[in-house]
């Protein structure tokens, strides 16, 4: 296990290096001049040149990337072109909202997806199985921005049960739970559908295995057969899907944060891209990539607890 963690950390460094290079180059080669955005329509040519010089944009692009890497090695993500604020501090302020939204969404997805998948497998070809399949397909197909708009119209505008948006109440308070409910359902619906389909297919495969039939033949109660013998073995691929979806949810909060006006990293990234704020975009992408790799490492470690037969030695 220790060797696995060391290898993954080494891979993480290489991966982040490659991601930083791709993001840096794509942002600098994309159309749009940060100096023109900062200077505004009244800026003269000399003003624009002075802004580019102050931001270091006149240096060759590889030199700029080298300076960026040196800053990363010292733990410095740079400073925003627009606000002059430290990128690290700007992300730190908004990251709790993004993380809480992603965690709440994956909880919604796991509860709905795993529960629906197991029941569908146990009651194969029943009305519940058919309904679950239809709802899962709809959940995968519906765009999150459309679903979020419908939920706002129904629960916020028409019924007035929940707020329209925002996530500025103290963590854990009643108002916070009300604010995060609609975004979490919106973001978690697609993941719940995928988890449900995976849970159903793996559960169907497991409950037909010889050891499950043997447990039933020995007189083991059905709840124990499903909960102990079948579910634990069926969870291996489901855990993989959950881990991948959680990483994707962190990057997928961009649209949901825009719809519900959540002040998170996704919204920060959108604003940074539109204003060509290179350091802010690069820092946000590196954060999401780092968490995605770490989540996959945690998933591999969880495997060994769920199934002791798995070894990475």
UniProtKB/TrEMBL annotation:
Keywords: Cell membrane, Membrane, Transmembrane, Transmembrane helix, Transport. It comes from the Bacteria. InterPro entries: BPD_transp_1_N, MetI-like, MetI-like_sf. The keyword Flavoprotein does not apply. The chain crosses the membrane at residues 99-122, 134-156, 176-196, 285-306. Coiled coil: none annotated. Its main location: membrane. It is found in: Cell membrane. PROSITE patterns: ABC_TM1 (PS50928). Residues 95-303 form the ABC transmembrane type-1 domain. It is a multi-pass membrane protein. CDD domains: TM_PBP2 (cd06261). Pfam families: BPD_transp_1, BPD_transp_1_N. Belongs to the binding-protein-dependent transport system permease family. This is ABC transporter permease.
